[in-house]
């Protein structure tokens, strides 16, 4: 199991291979690899895995005075930065693991360093630079005698380094914010072009899409729209709290894209219209004549 943490502004990534996904491991990761290295984040967004909502994890987050938010179920887009990193991480690891794929954990930190020191096209900077205000000196730089940060080594750089670093980092982060906003707007336009507007009121009955799996069953033949569920309240502009229509069981927070109205099946149906006996004979004969003509 790999724990993945991404800073939304700099895109700096922290990775940790863990034998299990126990709450103790999550708490240790938060404290040792996030808090003690970078300080306390203002907000943490995770999925709704048991290890993230366990009492121990919540107690640690509370002690650090973090604002912990969870995504709605079966909607990974709410934590898009991590989900995108998962795809990138899988692609990078696949290039370096052995044939038996048993040594992926040995490669993990090398892949993490590579990602953090690579300049991202969408932002124009590497996560390393946005975090530290300088580029790392790599072995190739030492071999070639190159300096990735010439402004830091020239005469008089020490005296005004702090001032210049503050200005450069502030400028770089403003550029990154602008580019991120442009990317968000483009993604929003693309999403809105095929998105359907839906809204529900308290008490409405809905069906909820749940892409679960069953051992021994074909995924294509599983019925994914379950329900009916009753809408309790609107928690955000796109999320609703729902519960079983019977009022039993736990409530769930569901994204509107996974909901659709529920309609009671109608018991009203009509019998086929009876054909009078005389007309029946005429019709039967007519049909017979037509068949004869075709033959």
Keywords:
SH3 type barrels, disordered C terminus, globular, 3 domains, 5-stranded antiparallel β-sheet, two-stranded antiparallel sheet, RNaseH-like_sf, alpha+beta, 295 residues, Nucleotidyltransferase, domain 5
- What structural class should be given to the helix and strand makeup? alpha+beta
Beta strands, count: 9
Largest sheet: 5 strands, antiparallel
Under the CATH scheme, the architecture of the largest domain is 2-Layer Sandwich
- Contiguous uncertain segments of 5+ residues: 279-295
Indicate the overall shape.
globular
Q: How many domain units?
A: 3
Q: Specify the number of helices.
A: 9
Q: SSE order, as H and E?
A: EEHEHHEHHHHHEEEEEH
Q: Which bin fits the share of residues in helices? A: 40-55%
What is the CA-CA span between the terminal residues?
71 Å
Mean pLDDT: 81
Q: Kindly report the CATH topology of the largest domain.
A: Nucleotidyltransferase, domain 5
Note the beta-strand portion: 15-25%
Outline the secondary-structure elements.
Elements: E1 2-6, E2 13-17, H1 23-38, E3 43-46, H2 50-53, H3 55-63, E4 67-70, H4 80-94, H5 104-117, H6 127-132, H7 139-144, H8 157-192, E5 205-209, E6 225-234, E7 239-244, E8 252-255, E9 259-261, H9 277-294
Parallel strand pairs: 3-4
Antiparallel strand pairs: 1-2, 5-6, 5-9, 6-7, 7-8
Helix pairs in contact: 1-3, 4-5
Describe the structure.
This protein is α+β, with helices and mostly antiparallel strands and 295 residues long. It folds into three domains: 1-117, Nucleotidyltransferase, domain 5 (2-Layer Sandwich), CATH 3.30.420; 134-195; 205-261, SH3 type barrels. It has helices at residues 23-38, 50-53, 55-63, 80-94, 104-117, 127-132, 139-144, 157-192, 277-294; strands at residues 2-6, 13-17, 43-46, 67-70, 205-209, 225-234, 239-244, 252-255, 259-261. The strands form three sheets. Strands 8-7-6-5-9 form a five-stranded antiparallel beta sheet, with no helix packed on it. Strands 1-2 form a two-stranded antiparallel ribbon. 12% of the residues are buried. Residues 283-295 have a biased composition (Basic and acidic residues). This is Integrase catalytic domain-containing protein.
